Amino acid sequence: MIPVxxxxxxxxxxxxxxxxxxxxxxxxxxxIRYESWLASRGFMVSPFHVRWQTTMFNRLFAYCARINxxxxxxxxxxxxxxGIAAMLGSVVLLVKTLQQTVAQMTTENPRVGVQQALQVVVxxxxxxxSQLAYFFIALLLSGIxxxxxxxxxxxxEQVRVNGFGIFVFVLYPGAFVDLFTxxxxxxxxxxxxxxxxxxxxxxxxxxxxALAFLFLLPVFLFPVYSTGGGALxxxxxxxxxxxxxxxxxxxxxxxxxxxxxxGGVEDWTSCLSHLSHTPQTGYCVPVASLQPSWAHGxxxxxxxxxxxxxxNNSLTDLCFTYMKPQGRSSKDREFACMPxxxxxxxxxxxxxxxxxxxxxxxxxxxxLENQTxxxxxxxxxxxxxxxxxxxxxxxxxxxxxxxxxRFGFLHLDLPVFLETFCKYVVSLSGALAVVNSVPCFALDxxxxxxxxxxxxxxxxxxxxxxxxxxxxFLLLAGSALLAANxxxxxxxVTAR
Length: 496
Fold this sequence. Notes:
This protein has 14 helices and 20 strands. By secondary structure, the protein is of the alpha+beta class. Strands 14-13-16-10-15 form a five-stranded antiparallel sheet. A four-stranded antiparallel sheet has the order 1-2-3-4. The protein has a four-stranded antiparallel sheet with strand order 9-8-17-18. It is elongated. Mean pLDDT is 89; it is low at 292-296.
């Protein structure tokens, strides 16, 4: 469900804006001055919608439209080809997404399923409130680059740009350009296609550029940040299993999980996944150290059928199981409750007794409940952090980055900010390219489809009204497809 606190803040904010706007418009003293101020600065206020429009960027657009006309022709012609391909691809993607959504709705657990390429984003539900700034800035940047493409393409085709603007609708920011409709209707359908496809084309280019920057980020930051030497801890959730005096701290560098080396965040994730799906690691300890432990409490079965021998719920002891040095069968297994840190500090990992030095050592394994694991986290120069629990809990308790600062004055979060922002730009700019390509009313896809039909069906369907009727039904189908995806996606996110 949508968080009530976020809903209250949004509604209260818009109510305050609308109330102030209404009071100023109805005031006999301030009405004329207020409306003149709005008009002179290009502002428009309506319920849940604020818009600002200006002509101050028209010279910049005109300058860009005059740079190397031949290169711009090839650039926007490439955008035309991409736009047509994207229009077809977006329909296929929406059909596939709708099928996946319906399949998830009909399963017993709708949260379990294939990750969808397109998802409805609801702040506070499937978008953490801590990352709202990334989301809105990336969305606004994607919208501005989108409209920049339309404006430059329009001026290149001799269509006047009346102005450029930015708006906020409910929570979502965006941008727009106001084109002179008379000029737009006078040019050919192919020229119109170049203009209409320029927005999604620029979104695609921005997506690729952000992806390339993300991939090359270690190269760009190499002089000040190193990578490959471990995963740097940037945040530890307070009260989690990784917190505490012997846990992890911000600035620690994790280099290993048990016998799995960690060179970065990807290794951290893969190691935890590996440890979750493999049997518990054992440790080679001297046989002599086990002798005093044999007399500890008798082993007993837990509810899940596994064995335990530490009945006092000690935070420092753990039940270990091993084969008797003379034993040959599973009936000869022994259990001992021993101080865990003393047992495993500096010891070699093992799977069987054969991995340990002959006769003098034995392989002991923590006796834990199903899916629970004992994990030694290496973060030199500190002693190992010892974790007992479900491995995904450790992953959620710690935030890490691949980038280790070379100098003490550098901020730990700068690479994290750049990585996160680039990921949002890739996701949102790509999503805008897909959604705006859909042949749907009020989106770029509507004008792209109409121009495409005018450019291709003139010789086949000579009657203009019939072409418009074909376009209407195609737009109706595309609108229904997009509406179904949004409605079901929103229901899946909020209602479940």
